[in-house]
Amino acid sequence: MERKPYPSEILRIMIQITDKEFHQLVGFIKDNYGINIKEEKRALLTGRLSNTLIQNGYSSFTDFYKALTSDKSEAVISQLINKITTNHTFFMREKDHFDYFKNTVLPELYTGVTNRDLRIWCAACSTGEESYTLAMLIDEFLGKKKIFWDKKILATDISEKVLHEAMKGEYANEKLKSLPLSWRMNYFKAVDDENSVVVDSIKNEVIYRKFNLMESRFPFRKKFHVIFCRNVMIYFDNNTKIDLVNKLYERTGNGGYLFLGHSEAIARNESDFRYVAPAVYRKI
Predict the structure, then answer these.
(1) Taking 80 as the threshold, does the pLDDT of residue 1 lie above it?
(2) Can you give the pLDDT at residue 217?
(3) Dihedrals φ, ψ of 5, to 5°?
(4) Domains of the chain listed by start with CATH number
């Protein structure tokens, strides 16, 4: 009787991708999610997806592509997104942005927002470190006056997997070392000796939703005072980036701020946003 391969052997099996299959798949990914996968990333894409294909009974990338394009439940699409998205993030990533938000943006909003309705969007929130950091900064800044403000943060991502992790709000204690001691004491509670979870008073300040930045329109009723969209457009080609920046501009209120990643930039001829600090732009 033929022996079935062990799981460790299955992991070493690679389903090869043809030129046609590669171009079909990267075209689907770019058209639907903006991510521009170049030829030199072919092996990486194949490696990330081969196990998914094998485990779900697909004999080729053509079969997988057919399932993608006919997927009504979005189960197959979710598998793809979870494999192709890079969710590298951590607390206080690009700390100068949080300092700028605390020392410049929050004081301006505190005096300028007369209806006490702060509208902040984390447009690619990943596993929640960014959105929870902003919630903690706002909580610390407003103090006892926070009860008079609507300060909930909208946090979105295309990956259901990372959204689930963000909503759970549980992190290894090692990942919290960059945070102030007072934050670790006031905003987290121990799960066990190695992990802690965000307290409910901060969790409840963040609304997590699945959202694709490639949607033709952004269906938000009100414009935002601040948008964080960091380290997303590095995966886009220039036309896709410009299109997204213009959509973000439309959803930013007058005087509002856009934070990008430090490896991202907006040229003067690409948008009406105005540069105000490294990777920080403003709608004037």
Answers:
(1) no
(2) 87
(3) -70, 145
(4) 7-84 (1.10.155.10), 95-282 (3.40.50.150)
**Residue 95 CB contacts under 8 Å (≥ 6 apart), including other chains:** 178
What is the identity of the amino acid at 135? Answer: A
For residues 205 and 21, what is the distance between their CA atoms, to the nearest angstrom? 43
Q: Tokens 């992990």 appear where?
A: 195
DSSP result, the chain: -PPPPPHHHHTT------HHHHHHHHHHHHHHH-----GGGHHHHHHHHHHHHHHTT-SSHHHHHHHHHT-SSSHHHHHHHHHH------TTTTHHHHHHIIIIIHHHHHHH-TT-B--EEETT-TTSHHHHHHHHHHHHHHGGGGGG-B--EEEEES-HHHHHHHHHTEEEGGGGTTS-HHHHHHSEEESSSSEEEE-HHHHTTEEEEE--TTSSS---SS-EEEEE--S-GGGS-HHHHHHHHHHHHHTEEEEEEEE--TT----GGG-S-EEEETTEEE--
Which token pair is 151?
């300060």
- Total count of residues recorded for the chain: 284
pTM of the model: 0.88
Taken in order 230, 234, 238, 244, is the CA torsion positive or negative?
negative
The per-residue pLDDT for range 76-92, each reduced to its tens digit, is 988 898 888 866 688 98
- Name 208's bridge partners: 155
CA quadruple 180, 183, 166, 260: dihedral, nearest 10: -50
- Tell me the C-alpha distance between 103 and 128, whole Å: 22
